[in-house]
Please model this.
Amino acid sequence: MKAIYLSFTAILISFGISQVDIKQPESEKANYSALADTSEFDQKKAIAKLREQIKGLENEPSDEVYKNIQMLNRVPAGRLISIMEMGYSRSLGVTCIHCHDPENWSSDEKAEKIITREMSKMVGQINNNLLADIEALGDRTAIVNCTTCHRGQKKPALNMDDN
Ligand code: HEC
Ligand code: HEC
Model:
């Protein structure tokens, strides 16, 4: 996955995709953020539902399909979901609910979502500035991404025994 950095002008076109109908009893909702990542949330189902909701718009830019896109603006809407699944969830070893309330995907209430935008900026700086400046690497495709550090963990390891 190559992170894409574009303007922060989000064109907020509502497509009504925030109302994902995951049935939960009211009592559980309150505890929602305390849920362990893999417990009751059905990621496959959530993804299938989202794909259904954006049907026909898969190739449109994300900022014209979703509500609150500040970074992946021109990424095709269908690909955004793959980035969420493979680029983010899998590389951190979490599900969508680590960063989202699945009943309101566009919300920025979770710190992990905000951190992810900053992490992406950092990855962009490493790739575009720091790695690109190591001349002796020549024309090798030297890139880092979320997996490079996280390797399926929320907190990257600091020594070999952590792996
Ligand atoms: C590590 C954090 C993280 C994980 C895990 C994650 N997302 Fe996201 N998601 C984000 C960020 C950050 C954005 C906003 C991107 C931007 O501003 O360009 C986003 C945006 C979205 C949007 C657009 C919402 C809108 O209307 O603006 C959808 C839909 C979405 N994610 C679905 C998912 C799904 C489905 C999963 C699980 C397969 C998932 N996300 C996992 C961080 C995450
Ligand atoms: C250069 C290494 C590196 C890369 C690359 C990297 N991260 Fe991180 N990330 C870290 C470190 C270090 C922390 C802080 C861990 C700690 O001490 O809590 C962190 C923390 C996070 C957290 C908060 C963890 C939590 O659950 O509290 C999120 C979310 C996150 N990173 C997402 C990402 C995503 C998404 C990407 C790819 C766009 C990414 N990171 C790329 C090093 C990295």
Q: What stands out?
A: The radius of gyration is 17 Å. The longest helix spans residues 111-130. The chain has one domain: 26-162. Residues 1-38 have pLDDT under 50 and may be disordered.
